[in-house]
Design brief:
By secondary structure, the protein is mainly beta. It is built from one helix and eleven strands; from the N terminus they run ββββββββββαβ. The strands form four sheets. A four-stranded mixed sheet has the order 1-2-5-8, with no helix packed on it. Strands 4-7-9 form a three-stranded parallel sheet. A hairpin with a 2-residue loop joins strand 1 and strand 2. The longest helix is centred in the C-terminal third of the chain and has 14 residues.
Amino acid sequence: MQSQWGTVVVPPGNYKISSNLSITVPIVFSPGAVLFPSTGVTISISNAIVADEHQIFQTAGGGGFALSGPAANAYAAWFGVLPANNAAQNTSAFNAMMNSMPASDGCHITWPAGQINVNSCSHTKSGVW
């Protein structure tokens, strides 16, 4: 990752993050760039995220994300909620997305076009959606 003029630019690649990380400046994801926190690791992002509707967050490794402020304006696809995925994949991605959102500040989630298949979903956050 490269920081330039107060912005973090993430080039294509999978980036495993092994300790808690707080990003407070805007972050730009190139197509193919994915952050992957290790088990028990949280990546906190509190400023603008610039990315197309492709997956940029991976939570299968047991880590998580905490989005707040401008970062809480998110695409569901950033977490892997996609029409092409099966219900189990979308359910896992949906729950990871919901658990990454702020508890009380509200958020705005943009859904991909098409049918999204999910199983039973649950999340631990409440607030204004």
